[in-house]
């Protein structure tokens, strides 16, 4: 049976789509099975995912997160991110030598890292109304017309803080380089077994970013807000919230994400490039 490659290019990016088409043609000429899911928005079910040995994402970190959302079983296919712009924290591979990189992944010559996922539930009046898996971050945020959100944050059943802020972020170590960093959170290496809790524009100097072991459960309860609030997961899922809603977040013990590592770029290289360090 031929090894399969799942291809996913950035939507409406002609450069990314052309690179994807060229890669598909090159791989098929070497007798690999390639299926292109670019431009689709449906869930890729577990049965379909079993056909693939490698998933190739062509675009940026946002495109990568879009594919992760659409995979029914996140850990089933290891993913390789091809970055077309600046250096990415998740999309580590460059467009130069893309065929060689994919062939290296198919032949088992590239290392794979396992990254943790978060299981998220939105509960309303004690009932689960939405749930899902998150790779980067969970954000409770208000719209621009809402003056303030007031939230209770509870960790492992113990009250942590009563937060008055524009919003609140719970990010994995991988996600610490995204929105959490922009909001003043710390940088964590992706292999650190921890999550980051970061208030967005807090109205008190006592509200500070916190680093927690990733196996501790976090509950965010919407105490009050003067307008509209949203739950945003990985920047992909946007759900309107109501007062009294609870967001339950915990480490997924039975699922993770597999990512191919580039031998030419490490996390520190991406850090220096993004933050212009050193």
Model description:
The chain is an alpha+beta fold. Helices cover 19% and strands 41% of the residues. It has helices spanning 14-29, 46-49, 61-70, 98-106, 179-182, 267-275, and strands spanning 4-9, 33-36, 54-59, 79-83, 93-94, 112-124, 127-134, 137-142, 149-155, 158-165, 167-172, 194-200, 210-213, 218-225, 229-233, 237-241, 246-260. The strands form 3 sheets. Strands 7-6-17-14-9-10 form a 6-stranded antiparallel β-sheet, with no helix packed on it. The protein is elongated, with a radius of gyration of 20 Å.
Low-confidence stretches: none
Number of strands: 17
SS-based class = alpha+beta
* Residue share in helix: 10-25%
How many domain modules? 2
Report the sheet with the most strands, covering strand number, pairing sense and barrel closure.
6 strands, antiparallel
- What fraction of residues sit in β-strands? 35-45%
Structural Rg:
20 Å
* Second-tier CATH architecture of the largest domain: Sandwich
Order of helical and strand elements: EHEHEHEEHEEEEEEHEEEEEEH
The separation of the N and C termini measures 48 Å
Taking strands numbered 1, 2, ... along the chain, how are they ordered across the largest sheet? Answer: 7-6-17-14-9-10
């Amino acid at each position: 049976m031929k090894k399969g490659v799942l291809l996913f290019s950035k939507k409406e990016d002609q450069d990314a789509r052309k690179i994807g088409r060229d890669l598909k043609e090159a791989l098929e000429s070497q007798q690999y099975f390639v299926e292109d899911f670019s431009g689709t928005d449906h869930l890729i079910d577990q049965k379909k995912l079993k056909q693939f040995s490698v998933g190739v994402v062509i675009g940026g970190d946002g495109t990568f997160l879009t594919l992760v959302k659409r995979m029914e079983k996140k850990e089933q296919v290891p993913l390789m991110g091809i970055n077309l712009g600046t250096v990415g924290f998740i999309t580590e591979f460059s467009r130069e030598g893309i065929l060689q990189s994919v062939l290296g992944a198919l032949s088992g010559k590239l290392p794979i890292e396992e990254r943790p996922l978060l299981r998220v539930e939105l509960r309303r009046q004690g009932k689960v109304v939405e749930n899902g898996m998150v790779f980067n971050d969970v954000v409770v945020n208000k719209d621009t017309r809402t003056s303030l959100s007031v939230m209770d944050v509870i960790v492992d059943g113990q009250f942590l803080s009563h937060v008055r802020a524009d919003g609140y972020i719970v990010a994995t170590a991988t996600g610490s380089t995204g929105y959490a960093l922009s909001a003043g959170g710390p940088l964590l290496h992706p292999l650190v077994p921890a999550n980051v809790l970061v208030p967005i524009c807090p109205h008190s100097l006592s509200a500070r970013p916190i680093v927690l072991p990733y196996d501790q459960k976090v509950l965010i309860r919407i105490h009050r807000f003067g307008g509209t609030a949203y739950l945003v997961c990985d920047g992909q899922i946007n759900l309107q919230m109501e007062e009294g809603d609870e967001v339950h977040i915990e480490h997924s013990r039975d699922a993770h994400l597999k990512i191919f590592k580039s031998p030419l770029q490490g996390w520190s290289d991406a850090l220096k490039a993004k933050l212009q360090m050193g």
